[in-house]
């Protein structure tokens, strides 16, 4: 009995979470598709192009922010913002050098904002429509060269992002191919339903479906340090073993989470089955009770035949004889 109650609690909690999630994600913006095209250069910089296919309920300004972290990169430059119109034409947005909460249509800024973060913001001025934007920028010193490896460790979406996405795909291109496939190591951090794959000796792809708001997404790529031969961001220490240990620890933790999720899904499945059986059982019981009552009433009716009156009494709605007294008239009516 306790097990059945536990399964039902899981069932109710599951649907409650779904309802709450749907309510919380209704912020008026949703990315139908977000594509990243990343080219890593020999000097350790990264050229990034983001293509946004976004549904906008009602807003006049869109924002993208980056944490400023000198350990990850030096600066972000060469920012451009474009709108890809439905007819295929391109609108190049004009740059301003002032932080604004409401950016004018077809204008953008890219600077350190009042909260100490690097921010790209552009004027959308859209309502109940799907728009396509292209945002491009260069990340300076995005790759670190250690004594035994090179590392590109980048967070594409931060936990502060409030825009959910149906699909995210990305391609990362190395400046040149590694000589052996096993020299290229890749990881992705974020939701457990994402995938990252080595497509070739110089290309990595990642993909994730249904990214919720306030969920981060990042990748980590490790190569031999001769891939970035012109990189000036040199760190005089070995890092490969530390990276491998970190990723193994995080992989073990992720596997435990996966096992819990699978167990929860199994419990939900069992709860659904039990709920169906209980409802089905209640229906069968009620049907049996109704059938028994009908049979019993039928028997009772058979045992008690319809009674016929002993006397034949003629009833008149109107008094036929005008000479009758009121007393006798009432007697006729009562009968």
Account of the protein in words:
There is one protein chain. With 335 residues, this protein is an alpha+beta fold. The protein has a domain at 25-254: tricorn interacting facor f3 domain (Immunoglobulin-like, Sandwich). 29% of the residues lie in helices and 37% in strands. It has three helices and 14 strands. It has helices at residues 2-24, 240-303, 326-334; strands at residues 29-40, 46-66, 75-84, 90-92, 94-95, 107-112, 118-140, 143-145, 150-157, 165-173, 185-189, 195-200, 203-211, 217-223. Strands 1, 2, 3, 4, 5, 6, 7, 10, 12 and 13 form a ten-stranded mixed beta sheet that branches. Strand 3 and strand 4 form a beta hairpin. Helix 1 packs across helix 2. The longest helix has 64 residues, at 240-303. The protein is elongated, with a radius of gyration of 37 Å. The model is unreliable at 14-26 and 330-335 (pLDDT under 50).
Structural class: alpha+beta
What fraction, in percent, of the residue positions are helical? 25-40%
The chain-level mean pLDDT equals: 85
Largest sheet: 10 strands, mixed
Would you identify the CATH architecture of the domain at 25-254?
Answer: Sandwich
Output the CATH homologous superfamily of the domain at 25-254: tricorn interacting facor f3 domain
| CATH-defined topology of the domain at 25-254 | Immunoglobulin-like
**Run of helices and strands:** HEEEEEEEEEEEEEEHH
- How big a fraction of the residues is strand? 35-45%
Radius of gyration: 37 Å
Low-confidence stretches: 14-26, 330-335
């Amino acid at each position: 009995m306790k097990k059945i109650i536990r399964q039902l609690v899981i069932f109710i909690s599951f649907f409650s979470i779904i309802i709450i999630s749907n309510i919380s994600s209704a912020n008026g913006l949703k990315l139908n598709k977000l594509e990243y095209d990343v080219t890593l250069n020999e000097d350790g910089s990264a050229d990034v192009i983001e293509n946004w296919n976004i549904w906008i309920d009602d807003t006049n300004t869109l924002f993208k922010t980056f944490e400023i972290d000198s350990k990850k990169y030096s600066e972000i430059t060469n920012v451009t913002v474009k709108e890809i119109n439905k007819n295929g034409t391109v609108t190049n947005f004009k740059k301003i050098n002032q932080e604004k909460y409401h950016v004018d249509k077809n204008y953008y800024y890219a600077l350190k904002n009042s909260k100490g973060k690097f921010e790209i913001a552009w004027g959308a001025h859209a309502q109940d429509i799907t728009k396509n934007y292209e945002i491009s920028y260069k990340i300076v010193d995005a790759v670190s060269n250690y004594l035994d490896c090179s590392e590109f460790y980048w967070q594409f979406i931060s936990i502060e992002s409030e825009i959910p996405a149906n699909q995210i795909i990305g391609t990362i291109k190395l400046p040149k191919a590694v000589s052996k496939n096993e020299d290229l190591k890749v990881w992705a951090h974020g939701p457990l339903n994402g995938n990252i794959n080595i497509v070739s000796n110089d290309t990595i792809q990642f993909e994730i479906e249904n990214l919720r708001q306030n969920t981060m997404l990042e990748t980590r790529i490790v190569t031999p340090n001769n891939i970035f031969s012109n990189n000036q961001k040199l760190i005089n220490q070995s890092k490969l073993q530390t990276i491998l240990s970190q990723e193994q620890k995080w992989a073990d933790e992720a596997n435990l989470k996966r096992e819990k999720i699978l167990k929860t899904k199994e419990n939900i499945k069992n709860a659904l089955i039990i709920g169906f059986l209980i409802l089905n059982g209640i229906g069968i019981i009620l049907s049996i009770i109704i059938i028994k009552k009908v049979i019993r009433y039928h028997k009772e009716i058979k045992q008690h035949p319809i009674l016929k009156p002993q006397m034949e009494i003629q009833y008149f709605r109107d008094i036929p004889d005008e000479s009758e007294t009121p007393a006798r008239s009432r007697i006729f009516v009562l009968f």
